[in-house]
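hey team, just a heads up i'm posting the complex here instead of the shared drive bc the drive is being weird again. everything in one block, sequence lines first with there labels, then the predicted structure for the whole assembly after. its two chains so it's a bit long, scroll down
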Amino acid sequence: MENGIIRVGLIGAGANTRLRHIPGLREQEGVEIVAVANRSRASGEAVASEYEIPTVYDNWMELMEDDNIDAVCVGTWPYMHRTLVLAALENGKHVLTEARMAMDAQEAHDMLDASRQFPHLVTQIVPAPQTLQVDRTVQDLISSGHLGEPLALRLRVCDYHGRANRADTFKNTDGPLHWRQNRQLSGYNIMGMGIWYETLMRYVGPATKVMAMTRVFTNQRKDESGILRGVTVPDHVNVLCEFASGVQADLSWSTVTGLQTGTELWIFGSEGTIKLEGPPFDKVLVGKPGDEGLSEHPIPDDKRGKWQVEEQFVNSVRDNAPVTHTPFDVGVQYMEFTESVTRSAQSGQAVYLPL
Amino acid sequence: MASDGIRLGLIGAGRNTRDRHIPGFQKVDGVEIAAVANRSRESGRTVADQFNIPTVYDNWQDLLEDPSLDAVCIGTWPYMHRTLTMAALDAGKHVLCEARMATSAQEAQEMLDASRERPNLITQIVPSPLTFKIDNLLQEKIAEGYVGEILGVSVQSLGNNFIDQGGPMHWRNDRDLSGFNILNMGIWYEAMIRWVGRATSVASMTKINVSSRKDEDGKLTPVTIPDHVNIIAQLANGAQANMHFSAVTGLSSGDGVWIYGSEGTIHVDGGLNIYGGRRGDDKLSEIPNPEENRAFWRVEEEFCNAIRGLEKITLTPFEVGLHYMEFTEAVTRSAQSGQTVALPL
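-- predicted structure starts here --
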């Protein structure tokens, strides 16, 4: 970190990197995006010229060897996260890695272990962003006893990722094989399951027992070269779980629930109920015994959270501020949950957490 | 059974018997409610006086020995259904038995076996009446391909009240009386299988949030029947279902059904209004459910018609009762073992 300037290299510059991380890093004082390595030199050059990044490397190994780089932002698909995070740490670089943390729980553990071998380096995963506006309010409602004892939780997620029209959430057989549907690239990750579980942990802590059934309704898709490939990442998931806090939950994610346009999260307590709906998840609905129905709970401006990923990363690098969104140990928890869903669906048995 | 007259005895005359079965039988020509046996002679007498029933028996054994009775209506709690059904069949009497069929799948299987040994006697379980109004329409819509291939099914029956700590012990909370039955799970499953057929595997988690209640004598008694149940099931038709039942979900969205198909979606709300939408629609809209197409309560009429050879029992034969009792037992077995339970058992 020369002259207080943090020099960042980008490895993998996909949509989220271009939309979020590059602008987010540029907003921070004393940060320079100095280099990029993408899947090919050509795609790296395209990004470099669009965002005025001075250096393009042929591959990530060359970027890692650049001693001028203090930190890397890993924006590849999950299958490279472990390899790149370990290499970055070994090269003395701070790491911000895109979510989903890894392919499976073992990889996530390897990454956490590596981060502990380099305590002076910052390690951060891009956090679950969908409920940042309301997280603090929900946490306060629960910890202040507004709910009484939390008893039950329900989450129904309609996954319309990649749909042109949000109303059209029927089974879609046309689309090409997306990396999210490709187990070689995504591992045990299924739809938005991991980031929703990360959100639930903010409210009710980690799960201790998981039972799941999954389906792959569209079981063949064409890849980039037009060849039909079998699909093994589920497009419909039902999960039951018990949380350490005593809450029992039913969770579902689906890409085949036509005309179910939104997502609903309910937390039922002995003395109150909380409901979130969205997107955009910008309101908190609450109800107590005696109420006619749910009503909106006001959110003070200073409690309304927002996207601060790059700011937090830079502050941590500069001042050693602890990473809250999201540290590697939390990533391990959601990867263990993610893996347990597939393990339970495969075995027909409850899987107990931690693994 | 002289000249098609049916002489009926009541065993157990609880609320559903008084509210439904007695008035229902009184509307059927040639049926006489001739006798009653309740938990005590005194409570039997009260019912007899109220409904002009000529004979009160001290107990069910005496009633079943009355050779003038053609049929019995069993209105006790589930723990007596098997015993009474078997005894009634042995005594040569037709049986209408209140729902939940039995306390376990084994009992239901024994009742079905016994009914098959007496093919001349009619056996019927009181059907799940929750969805009579919509059953025909849902069956028609699904059969005509409105939803295409069924992929996902969701059924919820969530109470609107917050947890009731310290409430009295109801027979539905008492495993000795109710067996594996939990909340209204069995009757919702019976309704669901009318539309989409049976489950082939079940995974579940259950929870007892109110762990003790006061019995009739005011004594605090542990509760072993869950008040919150989450179920995932694989259905024989290829769909995956989830079902949720709870008595602790204050201000919840109540009852509802969703049937998600490859080409369309059907949603039933808590008021049994039906909404549908097909691929290309931008939202669900209400599907009219004409009055004349709705099924209705005709349990006692069906029972008497069956005795007279005029129709076959469709709501609900013992075979279907066994299906829902197997599902019911599978839910507890899965919750206890942490394993998916395959059906049939």
